[in-house]
Amino acid sequence: MEGNKKRRKLTQDCLAVSEIIGAVLMIAIVVLAFSAISLAVFSEGGEMNPPNTPHTNLQENIDRSEDTVQIFHSGGEEIDLKYIKIMLDVDGQQVEFDMSDPGFEVHDPNGINSSDDVFALRDCIVIDTSSKVNLADADAIDIYFVHTASSQVIQKTVLWRDFGDLPDWITPYPYGSVYDSYEDDWWDPEVVHQIGDGHFTNNDFPKNVTIYESFTFGSLEELGIPEDTSFSKVILKIVYRIHDQSAKLELEINNAPEIVYELPKKENESVTSEFVEKEFDITQYIKNATDLENIEVKISTTPNADDQADKEGWIDFIGIHLEY
C-alpha cells in the first residue's frame, strides 16, 4: 500500500511539471509568432528604420541681378543629391528645383562642376532661376532646403527683403542706447549718429581705472527687420579720437572675451585733433537678425599715464552696415 501511494504521488508530480512546461512552450510559441508578424509588417515597405534627416550646416547667397542662388555646404553630414529639393518663395510665387533641372549645378571646392552624387563639405549648389522666376524686382525671397527622403525642411532662410527706409548705417539713434560707465549715465544717442557734426561723447581718463562706453542699436520691430533674416555681410564702423598716449582702446562685442579688437591710434600721434575712422567685418559674429538685436558693442580703456591732465577720448560715430 505504501509503495502504491508513493507511485501515485510521483505520477501526480510529473503531470504537474508537464502542465507547466506545456504552458511555457505555448507562451514561447505565441511570442515567436507575434515577433514574426511584426517583422513582416515593418519589413513590408523596405527598411525598418525611417530615413535619417541629415544634420548639415548651410549658407545661402543671392545675386538678384543674375537670377542666381548659391547654397554652400559649410559643415555636417553629406546629402545624396537625388534627395535635395530647393524651394523658392518669391513674392508669394513658389518654384522648385532639383538635380534634374538644367539650371541646377553642383560645384566642388575648386569651383569645378562636381561629378559626385553627394552634396559634401565645401561644395556649392548654384541655381539659375531665370527659367522659372525672376529675382531682380522681387521684394521678398525665401528659400527652403528640403530633404525629400525624410520629408523634412533642413533649413529655411530669408534671402532678400526690400526694407525700404533701412539706412546705410544703423546707429544707436533713435532706438538704441549709449551708456557711460565713468559717469554711470546715458548719453543722447544722437551724439554718435553722424560723422563730423560737432557732437560726440567725451570721457576723461582717470589713472588705472577701467572705463567704458556701451552701445545698443534697437529691436527688430523698431528697425523693421524680420526675425528670420540672415546677413551676408555685417560691417561695424567707429569714428573716434583719443588724447592719451598711454591709453589702449579695446572694442568688445557681446561681452565675449574672444571678440576683442584693439582700436589703433592715428599714425601721427601728435595730431590729436583728427578723428580716426575704422571698420570691422563682424559677419562671423552677427549672422542673423536675432544676433543683431542682441548685439552690444563696448569700447573700454584703462589709462595709466602719470599725468592725467587733458587725457580724454571721444566717440563721434558708431554704426552697423548690413548686406543680405
Describe what you observe in this structure.
The chain is of the alpha+beta class and 324 residues long. It has 3 domains: 1-48; 56-161, Immunoglobulin-like (Sandwich); 177-323, Jelly Rolls (Sandwich), CATH 2.60.120. It has 3 helices and 20 strands. β4 and β5 form a beta hairpin. The N and C termini lie far apart (104 Å).
Can I get a quick summary?
With 324 residues, the chain is α+β, with helices and mostly antiparallel strands. It contains three helices and 20 strands. It folds into three domains: 1-48; 56-161, Immunoglobulin-like (Sandwich); 177-323, Jelly Rolls (Sandwich), CATH 2.60.120.
Tally the structural domains.
3
Shape: elongated
By CATH, the architecture of the largest domain is named Sandwich
Report strand order across the widest sheet.
Answer: 12-11-14-19-16-17
Q: In the CATH scheme, what's the topology name of the largest domain?
A: Jelly Rolls
Range of strand content: 35-45%
- In whole angstroms, the N-to-C terminal distance is 104 Å
* Biggest sheet character: 6 strands, antiparallel
- At the first level of CATH, the class of the largest domain is Mainly Beta
Structural class by helix and strand composition: alpha+beta
Low-confidence stretches: 268-272
Q: Tally the helices.
A: 3
Helical coverage, percent range: 10-25%
Arithmetic mean pLDDT: 83
The helix/strand order is: HEEEEEEEEEEEEEEHEEEEHEE
**Any idea what the radius of gyration is?**
34 Å
How many beta-strand runs? 20
Keyphrases for this structure?
single chain, 324 residues, alpha+beta, Immunoglobulin-like, Jelly Rolls, 3 domains, 6-stranded antiparallel β-sheet, 4-stranded antiparallel β-sheet, 3 helices, 15% helix, elongated
